């Protein structure tokens, strides 16, 4: 009987973890923030690479 209670507690914890992982970051506000952060990162990365290419071209 004890093993059944332990097994049920184990599966209850697994379901809770799965639910929390699925629920995290799936709301529209979190997605919008994530999209903005990605766009800012890509813009900065593009700017840095453009500057590096221009610097290399100036040295030639």
Overall pLDDT metric: 85
Amino- and carboxy-terminal Cα gap: 79 Å
Please give the count of helices: 2
Q: What overall geometry do the principal axes of the alpha carbons give?
A: elongated
User: Structural class of the secondary elements?
Assistant: mainly alpha
Largest sheet: none
Beta strand count: 0
Helix percentage range: over 70%
- Radius of gyration of CA atoms, rounded to a whole number: 24 Å
Task: Please report which band the strand proportion falls in: under 5%, 5-15%, 15-25%, 25-35%, 35-45% or over 45%.
Answer: under 5%
SSE order, as H and E? HH
> What are the segments in which pLDDT stays under 50 over at least 5 consecutive residues?
none
Keywords:
60 residues; elongated; 90% helix
Can you offer a commentary on this structure?
With 60 residues, the protein is mainly alpha-helical. It has two helices and no strands. The protein is elongated, with a radius of gyration of 24 Å. The N and C termini lie far apart (79 Å).
What is this structure's SSE topology?
Elements: H1 2-23, H2 28-59
Write a brief structural summary.
By secondary structure, this protein is mainly alpha-helical.
């Amino acid at each position: 009987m004890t093993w059944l209670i332990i097994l049920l507690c184990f599966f209850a914890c697994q379901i809770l973890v799965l639910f929390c992982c699925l629920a995290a970051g799936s709301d529209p506000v979190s997605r919008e923030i994530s999209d903005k952060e990605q766009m800012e990162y890509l813009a900065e990365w593009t700017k840095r690479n453009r500057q590096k290419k221009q610097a290399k071209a100036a040295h030639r």
